[in-house]
């Protein structure tokens, strides 16, 4: 079997330049200069193409965020502590059926334990945040361990999902100045919530739905957990009810792009 070799573009350019050089009877010195110049030009063109592609992606992402109409009703659904091999697939199915995007604050340890599920979340177009590696109360740790909890989790999440998280939600919503400074140094925003579904407390699908519907306002960030079966059970009817009330589902990043007076708060974001 004959194997076809695919040469890089700049190599082909150099070969053409050499051919022209020998046909024209040039000197060795001039050929070296020609080859060097051609390669530099080829490399420059390649870099320009890469930079253009990156710039296009940045502009494309900005257009998505900036396309939100401040006159509409937006909320961000968030799910903590996953991914879970049993509950998360049900959550993803309900979100897909209602054309809803959400933000998943993953535990790094859970992402490592369920890499295919972490990848599926990312492939479905959802946003991924960091919920630390092992869900410890960060204020009880020393500064080194705080850094390890956040940074190790970020590495595990990126390895599993392909997304590097740029937002951290501290376990239990508890943080201090050291947690804030550590997250900021790692390029992360701290994100809390404005509506607590209390799914972790009630473990009742009907109460979860009622708690959210009674508390929801435009710009809200809703706290849920994709580790409780009752949360998955509540989601289909909850999403339908919210849609009927005129709400649109977006990611946390998109919510934070809206004017301040649109958001309900008191979610928290570190500015760096």
From TrEMBL:
Tagged with keyword Glycoprotein = no
* InterPro entries according to UniProt: Glyco_hydro/deAcase_b/a-brl, NODB_dom, Polysacc_deacetylase_ArnD
Q: What does the organism's lineage look like at the top?
A: Bacteria, Bacillati, Bacillota, Bacilli, Bacillales
Question: What PANTHER family does its record include?
Answer: CHITIN DEACETYLASE 1-RELATED, GLYCOSYL TRANSFERASE-RELATED
Recorded GO molecular functions are: hydrolase activity, acting on carbon-nitrogen (but not peptide) bonds; metal ion binding
- Its recorded name reads NodB homology domain-containing protein
Q: Which residues form the NodB homology domain?
A: 73-250
GO cellular component terms attached to this protein's record: membrane
């Amino acid at each position: 079997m004959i194997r076809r070799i695919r040469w890089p573009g700049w190599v082909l350019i150099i070969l053409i330049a050499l051919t022209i050089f020998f046909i024209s009877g040039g000197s060795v010195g001039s050929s070296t200069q020609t080859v060097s110049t051609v390669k530099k030009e080829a490399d420059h063109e390649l870099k320009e193409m890469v930079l253009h592609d990156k710039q296009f992606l940045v502009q494309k992402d900005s257009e998505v965020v900036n396309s939100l109409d401040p006159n509409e009703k937006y909320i961000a659904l968030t799910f903590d502590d996953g991914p879970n091999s049993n509950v998360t697939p049900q959550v993803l199915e309900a979100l897909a059926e209602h054309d809803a995007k959400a933000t998943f604050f993953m535990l790094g340890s859970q992402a490592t334990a369920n890499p295919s599920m972490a990848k599926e979340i990312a492939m479905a177009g959802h946003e991924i945040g960091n919920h630390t590696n092992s869900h410890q109360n960060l204020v009880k740790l020393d500064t080194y361990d705080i850094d390890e909890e956040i940074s190790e989790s970020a590495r595990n999440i990126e390895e599993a999902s392909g997304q590097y998280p740029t937002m951290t939600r501290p376990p239990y919503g508890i943080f201090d100045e050291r947690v804030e400074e550590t997250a900021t140094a790692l390029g992360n925003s701290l994100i809390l919530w404005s509506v607590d579904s209390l799914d972790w407390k009630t473990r009742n699908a009907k109460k979860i739905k009622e708690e959210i519907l009674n508390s929801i306002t435009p710009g809200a960030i809703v706290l849920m957990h994709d580790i409780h079966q009752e949360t998955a059970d509540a989601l289909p009817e909850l999403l339908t009810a919210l849609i009927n009330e005129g709400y649109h589902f977006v990611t946390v990043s998109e919510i934070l792009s809206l004017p301040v007076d649109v958001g309900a708060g008191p979610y928290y974001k570190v500015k760096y």
